[in-house]
Write a structure and sequence with these properties.
Rossmann fold; six-stranded mixed sheet; ABC transporter transmembrane region fold; four-stranded antiparallel sheet; alpha/beta
Length: 573
């Protein structure tokens, strides 16, 4: 919580504390004013004194109300502002996470930390600003005022306050670890629910509805039962407070009545002392309330800080070189090797090739051969272990990631579309793209016909992930989105896999005249997709086992021949 406190807005906090101090002044003044009205106004029948002092009381009441409202306003504004700042920072951090960091945390826990945990922090921070600072001043001030008004009754606090504090300590001691476990159970509940939603088609296909329902019920009841247990114990807090307050009132009334009967105390002082006692006990209850939620806030803060302090493995250089669009477009893999974190074997080993403007490089290989890994290295989604990758003659580790990725049009293996419209998705890589450019890209990607057939054309709705389109339609939209970027380098990571052979051929033919000034990388598993590439690289278990044209590999490369045989069954191509 202390580390996150550095993100707070100091002026707003100071204003909140200022109005809190004024509120305390008003609250402490009221019992004394009330006692004076009783002792010097009511007891002596002085109506004028009652009226004068009544107006003073109204003034302090107004001061207390206004100060409380402004304290709450600035406290709420600061706590919500802090939450907004933390969410922005986490979102920025996560967008730069590599797959290693994403796998380390998991999607469900990152969502929980960005929503539920930050809400916990906001709530606790609000209580710290609003209550944790108010309560100590109120208790100290009320204690001083009570002792000043009637020192003979001060011993009452030595009896009731320890009893209340022991009861609250026991309750908090029992509930704190339970509420800590609730954070982890929230993660599990979110994970199970999210998996059930995203995998609904697979669940239905395998007739696992009952199994998934049972899994969710288990996680849900685990969360609910733990929460019930914690709040059952917490329910003893209010009776404990009522017991302490009642005990205090009884003792004050009992001993106060005896002091009044012998003339050692005035009635007004008894009323004032009782009010100050209630303020002291109220302060203790407010502190205990904050302390009850503080462990949850500390856990939430620790989980959020863990994300914020996770170092980015891929960093921009301190003094990045300038990388702009160049007439001499080139992509050079210079003996690169890459190993996934914690893996014993290399995922890619000694990959070496050069690709220039107007050329098409195809990469083919079996499942798990490293094709997608290689594609992800180009926009620097991973950092290589050895060797170098150069774009337009500059090592990509020496330039800013943003500058590098602006020169790359990327169509990923999984054609992910964002909720919104087709036009918004097409402009994702180029916000300035015109409708004419978008339609042209769709025409090349063989998607113009089906988009034009939609009722709203480019304004047609896209559901989350593009779920309202078929696999082939999503791929064509993803390819068009990459083409709209007008990038130096186009990377198609197995993004033709859902297309039929005819559409595949038409798309590749349409690409030729449009990529004369572009270096194109096509990753595929189908021979028909790579057959007309200027250069084909064959990967097998992360190693480059062949490089050449289709005709060259067809004659000389065993792996390539095996792929051809498995797909074409001896047909000539």
């Amino acid at each position: 919580m202390i580390k996150l406190g550095k993100l707070m807005n100091t002026p707003r906090v100071l204003l909140s504390l200022l109005f809190m101090a004024l509120q305390v002044v008003g609250m402490l003044a009221m019992p004394t004013i009330t006692a004076n009205i009783i002792d010097f106004g009511v007891a002596q029948g002085d109506i004028n004194y009652i009226i004068r002092t009544g107006f003073i009381m109204l003034g302090f009441t107004f001061l207390t109300i206004v100060s409380a409202l402004l304290n709450v306003y600035y406290g709420a504004k600061e706590s919500q502002g802090l939450g907004d700042t933390i969410r922005r920072k986490i979102y920025t951090m996560v967008t730069y996470f590599t797959n290693e960091e994403l796998d380390r945390f998991g999607t469900s826990t990152l969502i929980t930390r960005t929503t539920n945990d930050i809400m916990q922090i906001q709530f606790v921070m609000m209580m710290i600003i609003r209550i944790m600072t108010l309560a100590p001043f109120l208790m100290i001030g009320a204690g001083i005022m009570a002792y000043t008004r009637e020192p003979n009754l001060a011993f009452v606090f030595l009896i009731s306050m320890p009893i209340l504090m022991v009861l609250l300590y026991l309750i908090l001691r029992l509930t704190s670890p339970i509420f800590k476990s609730l954070q982890l159970k929230t993660d599990r509940l979110n994970r199970v629910f999210r998996e059930g939603l995203t995998g609904i088609r697979v669940i239905r296909a395998f007739n696992k509805d009952a199994y998934e329902k049972e899994r969710f019920d288990d996680a849900n009841w685990d969360f609910a039962s733990t929460s019930i247990k914690a709040h059952t114990i917490l329910a003893f807090m209010m009776p404990s407070m009522v017991f302490a307050v009642s005990l205090t009132n009884i003792m004050i009334t009992w001993f106060g009545a005896q002091f009044i009967s012998v003339g050692e105390m005035q009635v007004g002082n008894l009323v004032a002392f009782m009010t100050y006692a209630m303020q002291i006990l109220l302060g203790i209850m407010m502190v205990s309330f904050v302390l009850f939620f503080l462990p949850r806030g500390q856990i939430a803060a620790a989980r959020v800080i863990e994300v914020l302090e996770t170092p980015n493995i891929i960093k921009d250089p301190d003094e990045p070189k300038e990388l702009k669009q160049d007439t001499n477009v080139s992509l050079h893999f210079n003996q690169i090797s890459y190993r996934y974190p914690g893996a014993e074997e290399l995922a890619l080993e000694n990959i070496d090739f050069r690709l220039n403007k107007g050329e098409r490089l195809a990469i083919i290989g079996g499942t798990g051969s490293g094709k997608t890994t290689l594609a992800n290295l180009i926009p620097r989604l991973y950092d290589i272990e050895s060797g170098s990758i150069e774009v337009n003659g500059i090592d990509i580790r020496e330039v800013a990631q943003g500058a590098l990725r602006r020169l790359i049009g990327f169509a990923p293996q999984k054609a992910l579309l964002f909720s919104g419209t087709i036009r918004a998705n097409m402009k994702y890589g180029n916000p300035d793209a015109t409708d004419e450019e978008i339609w042209h890209a769709l025409e090349i990607a063989q998607g113009k016909e089906f988009v034009a057939g939609l009722p709203n054309g480019l304004d047609s709705k896209v559901e989350q992930g593009g779920g309202n389109f078929s696999g082939g339609q999503r791929q064509r939209l993803s390819i068009a989105r990459a083409l709209v970027t007008d990038a130096d380098i186009l990377v198609f990571d197995d993004s033709f896999s859902a297309l039929d052979f005819k559409t595949d051929a038409q798309l590749r033919e349409a690409l030729k005249p449009e990529t004369q000034d572009t270096a194109v990388v096509i990753i595929a598993q189908r021979i028909s997709t790579v057959v007309d590439a200027d250069q084909i690289i064959v990967l097998d278990r992360g190693k480059m086992v062949g490089k050449g044209t289709h005709e060259e590999l067809k004659r000389t490369n065993t792996i390539y021949q095996e792929i051809m045989e498995s797909q074409l069954k001896g047909e000539d191509i």
